[in-house]
Automatic annotation (TrEMBL):
Signal peptide: none annotated. The keyword Glycoprotein does not apply. Residues 15-134 form the Glycosyltransferase 2-like domain. Keywords: Transferase. One of its GO terms (molecular function) is transferase activity. This is Glycosyl transferase family 2. InterPro entries: Glyco_trans_2-like, Nucleotide-diphossugar_trans, TPR-like_helical_dom_sf.
Amino acid sequence: MEEANEVPQSSISISLCMIVKNEEKVLGRCLESVAGIADEIIVVDTGSTDRTQEIAGQFTASVHHFQWIHDFSAARNFAFSLATKDYILWLDADDIFLPEDRSKFLQLKYAPLDPAIDTITMLYNLSHDQYGKVTSQLRRNRLVKRSNNFQWVGAVHEYLAVAGQAFHSDIAVTHSPLEHDADRNLLIYEERQKKGEIFSPRDLYYFANELLDHQLYNRAIEYYQRFLATKQGWVEDNIGACGKLADSFYHLSDPENQLKYIFTSFTYDTPRADFCCRLGFHFLQANQLLQAIFWYKTATQLEQPSETWGLVNYSCRTWLPHLQLCVCYSRIGKYQLAHEHNEQAAKYMPDDPRIAHNRKFLRSFIEPQPETVD
């Protein structure tokens, strides 16, 4: 007698909770990518006028309406309240699991999981280069124990307030937007401001981000400075504010204040590669090439962090400083070093036209040598 094949039993059950509005172009792609991961899919619509609800209905019968009150946390908490499984997974409609990450997630689901784990964090890949390599990334609490009743906080740029034991996975969610409502979040903040609401430090920071995205540099500077003055910000947001202040002052042609906030970032942590590249660029533009070389070389020599919750700019940790060092060394007549750094950059982006242009230019000054960086 043949034995029946046993169906593997998952270690945990998962509710996927989403809030959506007018996401007909991306929602199906997202829900297809979670096949086999979610035991329950809950979609909360906040006022779609397209086919979003119809598409959601092709994947789940649990499609609900939530009256939009300009509060993302309220909508997300409502979605969470409908979950019935052991853990809650959250995604936005323009997020997906790539096949490799879906496979990793399924391994996690079917492997024994310590019941003491309250939250599982995952990487969030925000952008990629033309070679498919991640260029910016951060980490988020992505899968949380339902019985803990964790809540979302903040009307806009909300965050999930969690506590307890965390497991930091190498699974990544990939953000893959097709469109973006650029004005939505700014309008929410400005409406809250008109009502006289007192902004938290986090609100000040994210309001400033929206102002900067709209190139309202002077207003952005005001709110970043107000945020830093509270001395209550998360260290990664403090560093982020310094970078955005430096960028704002650059756009306003104010190099003195640009430098001020680059160096202010060093008071919160050891120098980050993106700030070293900002300094390198400042000195390169001023034709202070030795100073530029120092800071670009420093960017190439920094240790890669094993874990970070803040935004990581991989360009500044990989090809960008090498490409700029090629420029710097070429200008001071050290063509062999220029060549070597150009080849280092080529390891990350071999088909970039700038690499080919530099090779052609340098060919008349040197013969190709073994690739060794000073």
